[in-house]
Amino acid sequence: MAPNKKILKNPLRASLVILLLGMIAKIFEVPYAKGVILLSFLAIGILYSIRFWKKSVKKNVDFIKVFLIVFWTMNGVLRILDFTYTLFFQFMTAVFFVVWFIMEGTAYFLDEDRKVKNSISHILWNCAIILGTLAVISGSLLKVLNWEFAVPLLVLGLALIAAYILKDFLTPAEASEDNGNNEELQL
Q: Are 45 and 84 in contact, with CB atoms under 8 Å apart?
């Protein structure tokens, strides 16, 4: 297995899209939305755990990420099942997120060579994910304040994030221009 090849990438992305669509369905009170959310949280937790255990070289940041995902998915599952004592899972998710952000942070959004992807399409899609995230945060906060347009703002944000993930899921991987066979390594 190539060192940069991530296993179960597409099933994880599909599970995330299903989770976001399930959240949109729950907002619109569609029947069985809770079941869709529950199954997608379980799928994300199981798939990411398998991905972690299959990884041959595990760094500290990998352990942080697996704990982050496990606590986040457990919190989601227990919240869907109406378990009242989920504060521990929320706190641990927040702690591991902050530690992950300190350790890896924005370097996660760089390509394998640690160069910024700065084509126009990458910039536009990154703006879409930022706008989607801000719309979800704003819509959630404004929903608490009973603002009239909070739900459409929240749905717009979830749809933008789902579109971003779907774009990566449906577009083929970019072929490298040269494969580097039979070349000298130049420093």
A: no
For residue range 48-57, list pLDDT tens digits in order. 999 999 988 8
- Give the pTM: 0.72
What residues contact 78, with CB distance under 8 A and at least 6 apart? 86, 89
User: Domain limits of the chain?
Assistant: 1-108, 117-171
Cα–Cα distance measured from residue 71 to residue 88, given in angstroms and rounded to the nearest whole number: 9
Alpha carbons 52 and 57: distance in angstroms, whole number: 10
How far from each other are the two terminal CA atoms of the chain, in whole angstroms? 25
Q: Pseudo-torsion of CA 79, 75, 91, 12, nearest 10°? A: -140
Query: Which pair of structure tokens corresponds to residue 88?
Result: 């521990």
Task: Report the alpha-carbon distance of residue 115 to residue 140 in Å, rounded.
Answer: 34
pLDDT in tens, 125-139: 878 888 988 999 899
